[in-house]
Amino acid sequence: MGKGEETRQAILEQAIALASEVGVSGLSIGALADKAGMSKSGLFAHFGSKEEMQLAVLRAAQERFAEFAFKPALKERRGLPRLRALMTNWLNWTEKARLPGACPLNSAANEFDDQPGPVRDAVAAGLADGRRMLANAVRLAVEAGDLREDTDVDQFVFELVGIELAAMQSQRLFRDKQAIPRALGAFERLVRDHQPSRKE
Q1: Is the C-alpha dihedral spanning 159, 165, 124, 81 positive or negative?
Q2: Measured in Å, how far apart are the chain's first and last C-alpha atoms?
Q3: Which residue, among 93, 127, 96, has the nearest Cα to 24 in the 3D structure?
Q4: CA distance 148 to 106
Q5: Residue 189: which domain range?
Q6: Mind giving me the DSSP string for 99-163?
Q7: Which candidate, 128, 147, 151, places its Cα nearest to that of 78?
């Protein structure tokens, strides 16, 4: 990695942390330059525009999510152990990544859901990847016999995402210290509802 790329990566580290606090729409060349200790022109040279900076931050946030949530779960056995690890990691990934605020991707979904354009498309693509990842883990749990064969994978994933979003809101907005335990309890209840009778 050359010096230019190292500098860009260091800037993105600062940008992800800032986006977790002020949102992706709240990122500006000026604010990030101040946080990174650079001039605006120096920062601009690495991205070219605010939109390109936002897109780079979203890509970097997705990579960070994969690093802290998805890859560690792959160490677990296919089936319910991997699905459980993925859900637990998903709920805790911003803390493990030492982000000072919320998940930049989830925040960006609220910011850009009604704003057509490249940033909205990137947010949708990133979150769709996450849902596909969850869906694959659910299918593997069905194949392993940990969940019933008639499990509606799309519905299961819909409810998992709902649990995650409710936990995020409760944790960030209401400062509910029980948000993560409540979310994990809801996950386990969902799993029990879909387990074969022999496992009940």
Answers
A1: negative
A2: 52
A3: 127
A4: 30
A5: 61-199
A6: -SSS-HHHHHHHHHTT--SHHHHHHHHHHHHHHHHHHHHHHHHHHTTSS-TT--HHHHHHHHHHH
A7: 147
Residue 199 has pLDDT above 70, yes or no: no
Classify each residue of 106-125 as buried b or exposed e, where b means 16 or more C-beta atoms within 10 Å of its C-beta: bbbbebbeeeeeebbebbee
CATH code of the domain covering residue 153: 1.10.357.10
The answer to whether 15 and 108 have CB atoms below 8 angstroms apart is no
pLDDT, tens digit (0-9, with 9 covering 90-100), for 115-133:
999 999 999 999 999 999 9
Question: What is the distance between the alpha carbons of residues 144 and 79, in angstroms, rounded to a whole number?
Answer: 5
More reliable by pLDDT, 85 or 200: 85
Domain count, the chain: 1
Distance CA 4, CA 9 (A): 9
